[in-house]
Design brief:
LmbE-like_dom_sf; 4-stranded mixed β-sheet
């Protein structure tokens, strides 16, 4: 629920505002508040527990495409890496069996610190490197993404302000099939 620093309720509201900016209705937002899945950048979550929760969500919403972090979690955040591990577990153990055989998984590529903060200059690099999917945002889409990020006021620390200015993820995203 984003309760690191005891801001769970604030962060839930910020998430709904951010999703609204992106055109995602509140009814499509699911927040999981589970005592064994604390919001903590240093805590690795239980893979099987998280895999079960993710699979239930896929089934309940009839999802056929999952986008998640890669093994680097984009920022090295243990919770992000745990989510990747849970989705990977599902793909390897469960999704290959019917009825989940049709669910595809794309993972967002983690890049080194230099590439992460060269904004639009990473487009050329990303175009030259192998990947399964590449999303290059228009200027309008980048501005929309920035507005959505700004909804997360409780999390806009100095380094996230730099992220808004320089991150390649607000301009280009490379993904691989899992």
């Amino acid at each position: 629920s984003g309760n690191y620093y005891n801001q769970g309720e604030i962060r839930k509201k910020e998430l709904e505002q951010s999703c609204c900016v992106l055109g995602i209705p509140a009814s499509d937002v699911t927040v999981i508040d589970h005592r064994d899945l604390p919001d903590d950048p240093a805590v690795e979550w239980d893979t099987q527990l998280l895999a079960t929760l993710v699979l239930k969500h896929i089934e309940a919403k009839n999802i056929n495409l999952v986008l998640t972090f890669d093994a680097g979690g984009v920022s090295g955040h243990a919770n992000h890496i745990s989510l990747y591990s849970a989705v990977r577990y599902n793909v390897c153990k469960l999704l290959c069996l019917p009825p989940w055989a049709g669910c595809r998984v794309l993972v967002l590529e983690s890049v080194n610190l230099c590439r992460k903060y060269i904004s639009f200059l990473d487009v050329l690099i990303s175009c030259l490197l192998p990947r399964d999917a590449l999303f290059i945002l228009t200027e309008e889409e980048t501005e929309q993404a920035k507005r959505a990020m700004r909804c997360h006021r409780s999390q806009l620390l100095w380094f996230r302000q730099l992220y808004l200015l320089f991150s390649r993820y607000l301009v280009v995203n490379s993904l691989r099939l899992l």
